[in-house]
# Entry
Amino acid sequence: MRKIFLTLLIIFLALKAETSFAAVNLQDMDFTRVNPSVRIKDITEVEGARGNQLTGIGLVTGLNGTGDNSPMAVQMIRNVMRNFGVTLDTRSVRTRNVAVVALTANLPPYVRPGQNIDVNVNTMGNASNLQGGMLIQSPLRAADGKVYAVAQGPVIVGGMSAQGAAATRTQNIPTAGRVPGGAIVEREVPSDFTAGGQVALLLREPDFTTAQRIADAINRTYGVVAYAVDAGRVEVNLPGQYVQAPTAFLANMGGLEVEPDTSAKVAVNERTGTVVMGGNVRISSVGVAHGNLVVNVADDPNVVQPESFSEGRTVVTRRTDITVDEEGGSMIAMPATTTVRDLVRVLNSLGARPRDIIEILQAIDRAGALHGELVTM
# Structure
């Protein structure tokens, strides 16, 4: 009885999962909306609040015979020992348990002295594995040559390497690792993001329409205080009640939602057969033949006239018919708009390979019928 009960329970759960999966049908999804509403803080950055890249050179000790045996490692060991009053000659240095590494870190904005940041560690010599190593104290400098942090701590390696008499097994990259929270910040990067009572927002993806929408959203909430300078910058005058509290203004303003706009682009990667396109890409009326696959796109403008004495307006709509003929036998017709998404959907229904779709899109672009930027990765 217990086995029968467990079998019925598994069947019930499987049917329930299948029903839930069927409920999420692509046909029920709304593809008419190209861009969602997002928060201003997710598509902009505050000018004057920036991070700094830090670099340094260090030594990782405690390796089990997998370190460097290069002259660079020998010289660094001698330099370190000289700082502690120990003088060594070249012949007395054994380096197989020590590795010379390059250190990189990113110092985020608003980080104060005494806080910790992560450090990336990568070998510079011929060390084969950093597993079990310990990074000894090493300064991290910025482009101005000043020391902003000091790193030290155990190295966490995401890979492994094992070697025997006749075989070697390596997984991931054992010559690169990380020291989580291994750097102590010694100097902060000054940031003044409210100079002159203004805050400047920098768009991560510059666009004139998006910049104007951001300014309009801010003005609707706080009055006329924002204006778009160009496609990548929106300047905001601090409202009177926030002059002494700019952080509160940025917190509240960042939560306002706008609908960003993007230029029409199609990104293709011929090496992997990947096609990624924006929802606002359009194609003109065009006929395509690729091998034994023939695609025809017909675009028919249709004028819609409102009734007399009504408040309606005359608009022009486009009716598009896409027909596909494969091997001269089967034909598929579908009414749709002239979007690349619809074209790709038809090609996929006929079993066209991604590389065939990429070649067709490239040919349409060369013919001047693809209204958007074709980006080849």
About this structure: Residues 18-24, 329-337 have pLDDT under 50 and may be disordered. The helical segments are 2-23, 71-83, 208-222, 246-254, 340-349, 354-366. The first strand starts at residue 38 and ends at 39. The chain has three domains: 30-49+191-262, 52-185, 265-376.
